[in-house]
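Supplementary Text 2. Reproducibility record for the structural model of the 277-residue chain.

All settings were left at their defaults, and a single model was retained for analysis rather than an ensemble. We include the record here because the model underlies the residue-level annotations in Supplementary Table 4.
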Amino acid sequence: MLDVTVIEDAEAAAVSLDPIRARLLAELAAGPASAAMLAGRVGLPRQKVNYHLKTLERHGLVELAGERRKGNVTERLMRATAASYVISPLALAAVQPDPDRFRDQLSARWLLALGARLVRDVGSLVTGAAKARKRLATYALDGEVTFATAADRAAFIEELTAGVGALIRKYHDGDAEGGRPHRIVVAVHPTVKPEAVTEAGAEAVTGAGAGAGAVTEAGAAAGSDAVAGPGPEVVAGPGPAAGPGAVARPDAEVAAGPEAEAGPEVVEAPAGREAAR
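Retained model, structure tokens:
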């Protein structure tokens, strides 16, 4: 079972958002179970549970874990294909966010657009790397800082922008033969209090995942301006990019294994302020 997977198909997304099927996914993420076992847990007839399980299986959200004999019946034990799921903007392709439509480093909604692109691109890259059976080289940095004053926060942003910009100018080589563009995004946003994350919000992604690199809090910051409020969270994620971007290959990640060759690679942390492109 994967720790997290991205749902890119619109029909599969609709299936996962059905309350009953989302409950079944949660049960099967905890361990394999048959339709009869699940029926007692969710309070539905076995036949109806079996119908929902077949629908989930058809869309690749659950899979057969094994079979067992129970009297004259052979029960199919099903399990979730992942512990948690994230729905890609590709599921709403016609209306998916596009951060290139406007650029506003102080806009929380632009931060959301960048976060959506992260889920879309890294999800596609993970899928391609899995098919090619190769490792996807990624990197993410997740941290938290408490500023005493708004002036301290502004000074931090200024130094962060200058520092990342200097690194990009130092390592970027647009003429390198065989070089791979990498996208770098840096975000600063107020940290979300645990009680502010409602169960409904968590279920919207069926157990929000961070397999792309500890970046899911970008979506949780809805309504918070990137420069408003104390205690912003700082996330930085240099990594391969789908489009033009700065070249950055963290030594630890390069040493860990080869990059996947299944298409361009993207790793980006969600950002409200993009320190450099």
